[in-house]
Structures are given as structure tokens and as C-alpha cells.
Design brief:
Elements lengths: L2 E6 L5 H14 L4 E4 L9 E4 L16 E4 L17 E2 L4 H20 L1 H6 L17 E5 L3 H12 L3 E6 L8 E5 L4 H6 L3 E4 L13 H6 L4 E5 L8 H10 L2 E6 L12 H4 L3 E3 L9 H17 L14
Parallel strand pairs: 1-2, 1-3, 3-4, 4-5, 6-7, 6-9, 7-8, 9-10, 10-11, 11-12
Helix pairs in contact: 1-9, 2-4
Bound molecules: NADPH dihydro-nicotinamide-adenine-dinucleotide phosphate.
NADPH dihydro-nicotinamide-adenine-dinucleotide phosphate binds next to helix 4 and strand 7.
Keywords: NAD, Oxidoreductase, Pyruvate
Pfam families: 2-Hacid_dh_C (PF02826)
Protein name: Glyoxylate/hydroxypyruvate reductase A
Length: 310
């Protein structure tokens, strides 16, 4: 049987993915038709980006799976019209990009780079930074992205801790898990990196209480999702100096409104959701491998647990 594959993403991505997917699926020996338009009841797989506008999957009666181009699937996970397996994106290129972004911002804080880049005031005040081994960085979320960032920071000799829902064993990383161990994870965290998904259980993971557990002057880096942080609590903690600085890549409302206090707060760096992105060359391989698996009757990779929400 020929697998009909609907590519449902921003139109400018189609000329990029079409040749890559054609090559990978042909090499994998899959019989397929790939396009941006099919009768819904003829579609076997949807390659999906949430910003494509497709919301109602009910007419897609022969669908075998929805394969997300995005790692964050919070906008589709509760869609009741979607009753088939949903796979999220785990992509080597996306992971590498996130690792680079996280390591860069951790090093910026660790080395105190801002002071010398932004203040050239003629004052000679030698105050060298400590070694990485004397700096504790906590990664909240030890999934595809968090684990890679934790390993990279550990390779640089940082004292790395991490927190997840289930137990982990990652060489060089002190791992905590479960709600009641968040306190233990945060109390030593001079720098906290949020790489949790946006679910009801993770909303406001950083709030007035948890921010107060961190060492005074701690730094926050959030490339995860906006709702992970109680914004008012963070602004208050920045104003008292409990939190020294925050670098925020993701927000409850994106684009971040021009009037939002984050834009003007002296101790906040806003970046416009650029920490990482799905890279076509590697992600097309991931998508095509899942289609091959579906056609061969093998289990899909990277399935979302709809109950857990990620
Ligand atoms: P994964 O699903 O692989 O990992 C999620 C991690 O969070 C897991 O370790 C999981 O624990 C943990 N977690 C989930 N719920 C809880 C909870 N209630 N308490 C404690 N830990 C929890 O996701 P990825 O690593 O692939 O991606 C993480 C997020 O990064 C995405 O959801 C997305 O929001 C964001 N992202 C941001 C990008 C950007 O450019 N800013 C780009 C790509 C992704 P366990 O391992 O036990 O399941």
C-alpha cells in the first residue's frame, strides 16, 4: 500500500523538506505519496507543525500517526480530535543547537562576562571567576535536551545537578527526581536552566517559594516554556536581588508584548525564542524513520504520553 503523507507546516518549509523526505523514504524502500494537499480521508501520516493551522483531525479517518516537527507539543496534546499516536521531535540538530545555547549562557553567567562587555568605566578591579568545578548548575528537565546540556556542562567540569519526574542515572550529574526533591535540586543551584515541557504539572515550577530556595543572586536561564515561571514572582525576586539575572527565551505570550516589564528590566535578557530549532536535514530523517516504522508495523519513536502531556 502507498502511504499518503500530508506535510502540514509553514509553506516555506515544503521546498526544504520535500526533497529530503523523498530521498530518505525512497532509500528506506517506503511506497509513498508526499504532498501539501490530500483529501483528509486519504491521509496516512501528517507531518505537523502547530502553526500550520490544522486543528481538526476528525476527518482524517485513516490516519496512522501525527509526526510533530516541534519538540514542544503543548498546543496539540489536548486536542480531542486527535486519537492516533502523536510523536514529538527529537532531533540531533535541535539538541546540538540547544546545548550550544545553554552552554553559552551558562558560561556568560559563570565568567561574569556582562560586567566587562557592558561596563568599561576605567576601574581596574581584578576579580577572576571561580573554576567551573566550584559552580553548581541545575538542569530542570533531563529529557532529550536537558540531558545533553547536562552532559556538556559536566564535560566542562561544572558541578551539575538535574531534576526530572522519573529517576535518572547520568554520569557526572547528581540527579534528583519527583516533586519532593525539587527543593534539594534548587538549594545549591547558582544557575538554573529550565528544560521542562509545558504541562499542568510543570506550570509555575519557579514561583515565589521555589525562587526563595535558590542561593541569593542565582541566575535563571529559561529556554523551556514561558509558563514554567511565575512572572510576577520572578520580577519580584529580581527586584530584591534574590535572583541576580534571568535570560528568558520563551514567554506565556509570544512575541513578548513591547510593554512587558521583562524588556526593560536591567537584570533580564530577552531572546526571541531562538534557543534552538528543528533542523531539516536531521529532523526529516527522524520523521521518515517513523513513517518506515509505521509501514513495517514497528513501534513509533518519541511517542507523546497524552496523559502526562509530554
Ligand atoms: P523531553 O520530553 O525529552 O524531556 C522533558 C523532561 O522534563 C524529562 O526529563 C521529564 O522527566 C521532565 N519532566 C516532565 N514533567 C515533569 C515534572 N512534572 N516534574 C519533573 N520533571 C518533569 O523534552 P525535550 O528535552 O525534548 O524538550 C524540553 C522542552 O524544551 C520542550 O518541551 C520545549 O518546551 C522546549 N524547547 C524549547 C526550544 C526553544 O527554542 N526555546 C526548542 C525545543 C524545545 P522524565 O524524564 O522523568 O519523563
Amino acid at each position: 500500500m502507498t502511504a499518503n503523507i500530508l506535510f502540514s507546516a509553514r509553506p516555506e518549509l515544503w521546498p526544504v523538506y520535500q526533497p529530503l523526505m523523498t530521498q530518505y523514504l525512497t532509500n528506506a524502500g517506503v511506497a509513498f505519496q508526499l504532498g501539501t494537499k490530500f483529501e483528509p480521508d486519504q491521509v496516512d501520516y501528517v507531518v505537523y507543525a502547530p502553526n500550520s493551522g490544522l486543528r481538526d483531525f476528525a476527518p482524517y479517518t485513516r490516519l496512522k500517526a501525527v509526526l510533530s516537527l516541534w519538540a514542544g507539543i503543548e498546543s496539540i496534546v489536548e486536542n480531542d480530535t486527535l486519537t492516533v499516536p502523536l510523536a514529538r521531535m527529537v532531533d540531533h540538530g535541535l539538541t546540538q543547537g540547544m546545548t550550544e545555547w545553554v552552554v553559552g549562557h551558562v558560561l556568560r553567567y559563570h565568567l561574569g562576562m556582562d560586567r566587562h562587555i557592558t561596563v568599561q568605566d576605567g576601574v581596574w578591579a581584578p576579580d577572576p571567576p571561580p573554576l567551573a568545578s566550584d559552580r553548581t548548575v541545575c538542569i530542570l528537565g533531563l529529557g532529550a535536551l536537558g540531558e545533553a546540556a547536562a552532559r556538556a556542562l559536566s564535560a566542562l567540569n561544572f558541578n551539575v545537578t538535574g531534576w526530572s519526574r522519573s529517576a535518572k542515572a547520568i554520569p557526572g550529574v547528581t540527579c534528583f527526581h519527583g516533586e519532593d526533591r525539587l527543593r534539594a535540586a534548587l538549594t545549591q543551584a547558582e544557575i538554573a536552566v529550565l528544560l521542562l515541557p509545558d504541562t499542568p504539572a510543570t506550570e509555575n515550577t519557579l514561583n515565589a517559594e521555589t525562587l526563595s530556595l535558590m542561593p541569593k543572586g542565582a541566575h535563571i536561564i529559561n529556554p523551556g516554556r514561558g509558563p514554567l515561571i511565575d512572572d510576577q514572582a520572578l520580577l519580584a525576586a529580581l527586584d530584591t536581588g534574590q535572583i541576580g539575572h534571568a535570560t528568558l527565551d520563551v514567554f506565556r505570550v509570544e512575541p513578548l508584548p513591547a510593554s512587558h516589564p521583562y524588556w526593560t528590566h536591567p537584570n533580564v535578557t530577552v531572546t526571541p525564542h531562538i534557543a534552538s530549532e528543528t533542523r531539516p536535514v536531521t529532523s526529516a530523517q527522524v520523521i521518515c524513520e517513523n513513517i518506515r516504522r509505521g509501514e513495517a508495523g514497528e513501534p513509533f519513536l518519541h511517542l507523546v504520553d497524552r496523559e502526562m502531556g509530554y
